[in-house]
């Protein structure tokens, strides 16, 4: 390009000039040739660089159009009319070469603009300027004279799939302004990680809503009684705290129970009272609904734990097993300290720092364990092997003890001491008293004893039900790092087996560990997976509905008849005597009026008297004689008697003599045994 322009200019000047240039090494021709060579060497690299940076500038014509306009140097003027440059040499102008095509248009536009009126000039000044020659040749996407970096296509991440279902944001697809127009859209959707987080949050919210709905339905379909402690050690104590009347059993007199759980229920009662909603039905159902919601959150935590440790499919089967468990259905909505102990165990398990866990937190799981121990001291038993394993794996053992164990222990111990000081009126460590009574003195045998193998042959197999073969299969298949969970189950069963008094609810806290292994078993089944899931659902649904709606429901149904006495105008004259095994029915927490009531007492002997017999045993040894002796005067007779059907024949003479009439018959169980009959009878004394 640096050579062709002078040759063209020389041709226009005439044949003589051409002959001098072609002649070669003449004086004038040599000087001109040298200047042209230098000028061409200076211009060619810039033009070549522009051509390389612009994909559109390939031909020589494009190169001339895309080269930047050079300002005339000193001693050079441009002839706008002819489009040629004139250089002054010794006072004489010489025609050099025509200006590039790209320079002529801006000059003509400038002259035309000067001829326009002032208003038109201002209007044009507001309009965008025409693109420079480089942009005209290479397009508007590339800047002038600057090579663009290659934009690599970002590979789609696996996490992008999580956000595909998200709704498009307003303004999606609009591109940001800027050089090259390659910016991200201003209204574009979230990043892949953000989309995955949003999808996971939405899935967790839906799962939580489902779990709450299931557990609320669970609560509504459990209308039977399990053990007396769900009323006498929780609701009855809370009713006394909130309303000033209620019966405290002998455990509270001996400082064997902590007040933390009843205080929680008393707060619910007090809130209902302040809202003017302290109806007896709300007092019965609201604490159970709160327990159901907590159980739902625990189910979700169990699902999330397995999803973090394994995958969503395994978590789905563990969650399915948890929902299908008939004993969990039967127990998780009851106001039992064992239930709260189990829920806190699941919450703590979510934060337990097992190998591969993404949610591990020493402070959080130790705090939850401490709260469970405050509510029920036996909550420490399943966690002994787990905490010991954590301590062995922990590299900074001193930090674990000094920064987590000791602070958490001191804070929770202080809370327990303060709450019990307020409740009992004196400083007392109920956890120590509980340990002495149930372990060291083994006084729990007063309520029955069982052989050492009872949990292995009856307790654990019954609460597992049809999950038992899946539990065994899952223990074989589960990875090695989950053996610590199996160790917690075995350890807990063995420790409780050393105690004489045994109950199903004592080993309820290990049931979530068992569901963990049952889910592993279901996940690894191939051809029989759907059949096994259907079998688990049906085989657990039947006992769950039967035990929740039919078995042992009479002791709750009879309280509705007692509630009617509170609406009677003769309430002050009513006197209800419950002649059943002690603590068979609820008390003031299910009546909510200061009605005169009495039941057969059965506290254990704490004095060491070997000939001690409680009131209930004395009554059942000779019911008729006891009644005649106790109510020797008609003014002492109760207005209403409640007892099991097995007692009717023995006291029929007393009923006829004192003028009692049967007013209600309530079904209780299909499996009567001992002092417990199939039905409950309600007798009322007639007026003579």
TrEMBL record:
<feature type="transmembrane region" description="Helical">
    <location>
        <begin position="506"/>
        <end position="525"/>
    </location>
</feature>
<feature type="transmembrane region" description="Helical">
    <location>
        <begin position="532"/>
        <end position="550"/>
    </location>
</feature>
<dbReference type="GO" id="GO:0005789">
    <property type="term" value="C:endoplasmic reticulum membrane"/>
</dbReference>
<protein>
    <recommendedName>
        <fullName>Mannosyltransferase</fullName>
        <ecNumber>2.4.1.-</ecNumber>
    </recommendedName>
</protein>
<feature type="compositionally biased region" description="Basic and acidic residues">
    <location>
        <begin position="98"/>
        <end position="116"/>
    </location>
</feature>
<feature type="region of interest" description="Disordered">
    <location>
        <begin position="1"/>
        <end position="200"/>
    </location>
</feature>
<feature type="transmembrane region" description="Helical">
    <location>
        <begin position="452"/>
        <end position="472"/>
    </location>
</feature>
<keyword id="KW-0812">Transmembrane</keyword>
<dbReference type="InterPro" id="IPR005599">
    <property type="entry name" value="GPI_mannosylTrfase"/>
</dbReference>
<comment type="similarity">
    <text>Belongs to the glycosyltransferase 22 family.</text>
</comment>
<keyword id="KW-0328">Glycosyltransferase</keyword>
<dbReference type="GO" id="GO:0006506">
    <property type="term" value="P:GPI anchor biosynthetic process"/>
</dbReference>
<feature type="compositionally biased region" description="Gly residues">
    <location>
        <begin position="179"/>
        <end position="188"/>
    </location>
</feature>
<feature type="compositionally biased region" description="Low complexity">
    <location>
        <begin position="56"/>
        <end position="84"/>
    </location>
</feature>
<feature type="transmembrane region" description="Helical">
    <location>
        <begin position="484"/>
        <end position="500"/>
    </location>
</feature>
<keyword id="KW-0808">Transferase</keyword>
<keyword id="KW-0256">Endoplasmic reticulum</keyword>
<keyword id="KW-0472">Membrane</keyword>
<dbReference type="GO" id="GO:0000026">
    <property type="term" value="F:alpha-1,2-mannosyltransferase activity"/>
</dbReference>
<dbReference type="Pfam" id="PF03901">
    <property type="entry name" value="Glyco_transf_22"/>
</dbReference>
<feature type="transmembrane region" description="Helical">
    <location>
        <begin position="365"/>
        <end position="388"/>
    </location>
</feature>
<feature type="transmembrane region" description="Helical">
    <location>
        <begin position="400"/>
        <end position="419"/>
    </location>
</feature>
<keyword id="KW-1133">Transmembrane helix</keyword>
<comment type="function">
    <text>Alpha-1,2-mannosyltransferase that catalyzes the transfer of the third mannose, via an alpha-1,2 bond, from a dolichol-phosphate-mannose (Dol-P-Man) to an alpha-D-Man-(1-&gt;6)-2-PEtn-alpha-D-Man-(1-&gt;4)-alpha-D-GlcN-(1-&gt;6)-(1-radyl,2-acyl-sn-glycero-3-phospho)-2-acyl-inositol intermediate to generate an alpha-D-Man-(1-&gt;2)-alpha-D-Man-(1-&gt;6)-2-PEtn-alpha-D-Man-(1-&gt;4)-alpha-D-GlcN-(1-&gt;6)-(1-radyl,2-acyl-sn-glycero-3-phospho)-2-acyl-inositol (also termed H6) and participates in the nineth step of the glycosylphosphatidylinositol-anchor biosynthesis.</text>
</comment>
């Amino acid at each position: 390009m640096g050579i062709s322009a002078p040759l063209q200019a020389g041709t226009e000047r005439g044949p003589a000039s051409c002959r001098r240039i072609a002649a070669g090494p003449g004086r004038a021709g040599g000087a001109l040739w040298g200047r042209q060579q230098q000028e061409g060497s200076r211009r060619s690299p810039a033009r070549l660089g522009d051509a390389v940076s612009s994909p559109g500038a390939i031909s020589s014509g494009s190169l001339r159009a895309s080269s930047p306009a050079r300002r005339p140097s000193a001693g050079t003027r441009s002839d706008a009319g002819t489009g040629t440059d004139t250089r002054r040499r010794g006072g004489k102008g010489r025609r050099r070469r025509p200006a590039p095509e790209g320079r002529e248009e801006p000059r003509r536009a400038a002259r035309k603009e000067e001829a326009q009126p002032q208003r038109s000039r201002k209007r044009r000044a507001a309009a965008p300027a025409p693109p420079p020659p480089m942009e005209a040749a290479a397009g508007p996407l590339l800047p002038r004279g600057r090579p663009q970096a290659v934009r690599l296509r970002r590979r789609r991440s696996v996490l992008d799939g999580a956000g595909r279902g998200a709704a498009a944001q307003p303004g999606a697809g609009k591109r940001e302004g800027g050089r090259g127009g390659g910016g991200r859209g201003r209204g574009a959707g979230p990043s892949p990680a953000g989309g995955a987080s949003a999808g996971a949050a939405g899935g967790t919210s839906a799962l939580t809503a489902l779990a709450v709905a299931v557990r609320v339905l669970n609560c509504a379909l459990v209308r039977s009684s399990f053990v007396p402690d769900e009323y006498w050690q929780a609701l009855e104590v809370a009713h006394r705290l909130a309303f000033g009347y209620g019966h405290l059993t002998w455990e509270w007199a001996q400082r064997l129970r902590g007040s933390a759980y009843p205080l929680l229920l008393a707060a619910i009662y007090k809130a209902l009272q302040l809202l003017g909603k302290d109806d007896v039905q709300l007092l019965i159902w609201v604490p159970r609904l709160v327990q159901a919601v907590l159980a739902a959150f625990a189910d979700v935590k169990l699902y999330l734990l397995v999803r973090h440790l394994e995958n969503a499919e395994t978590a789905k089967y563990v969650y399915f097993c948890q929902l299908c468990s008939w004993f969990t259905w039967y127990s998780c909505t009851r106001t039992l300290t064992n239930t709260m102990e189990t829920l806190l165990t699941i919450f703590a398990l979510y934060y337990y720092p097992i190998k591969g866990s993404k949610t591990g937190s020493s402070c959080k799981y130790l705090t939850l364990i401490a709260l469970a121990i405050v509510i029920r001291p036996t909550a420490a038993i399943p966690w002994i092997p787990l905490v010991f394993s954590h301590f062995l794996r922990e590299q900074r053992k001193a930090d674990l003890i000094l920064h987590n164990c000791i602070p958490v222990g001191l804070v929770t111990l202080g809370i327990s001491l303060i709450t019990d000081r307020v409740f009992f009126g004196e400083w007392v460590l109920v956890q120590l008293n509980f340990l002495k009574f149930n372990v060291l003195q083994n006084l729990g045998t007063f309520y029955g004893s069982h052989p050492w193998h009872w949990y292995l042959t009856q307790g654990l197999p019954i609460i597992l039900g049809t999950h038992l073969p899946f539990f065994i299969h899952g223990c074989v298949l589960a990875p090695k790092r989950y053996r610590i969970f199996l160790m917690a189950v075995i350890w807990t069963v063995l420790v409780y087996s050393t105690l004489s008094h045994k109950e199903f609810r004592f080993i309820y806290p290990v049931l979530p560990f068992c569901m963990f292994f049952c889910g592993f078993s279901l996940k690894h089944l191939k051809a029989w997976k759907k059949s096994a899931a259907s079998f688990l659902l049906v085989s657990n649904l039947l006992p769950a509905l039967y035990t929740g709606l039919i078995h042992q429901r009479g002791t709750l149904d009879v309280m509705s008849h007692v509630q009617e006495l509170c609406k009677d105008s003769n309430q002050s004259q009513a006197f209800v005597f419950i002649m059943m095994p002690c603590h068979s029915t609820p008390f003031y927490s299910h009546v909510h009026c200061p009605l005169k009531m009495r039941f057969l007492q059965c506290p254990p002997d704490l004095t060491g008297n070997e000939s001690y017999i409680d009131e209930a045993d004395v009554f059942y040894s000779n019911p008729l004689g006891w009644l005649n002796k106790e109510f020797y005067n008609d003014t002492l007779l109760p207005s209403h008697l409640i007892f099991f059907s097995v007692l009717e024949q023995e006291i029929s003479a007393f009923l006829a003599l004192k003028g009692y009439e049967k007013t209600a018959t309530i079904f209780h169980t299909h499996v009567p045994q001992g002092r417990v009959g199939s039905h409950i009878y309600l007798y009322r004394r007639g007026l003579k």
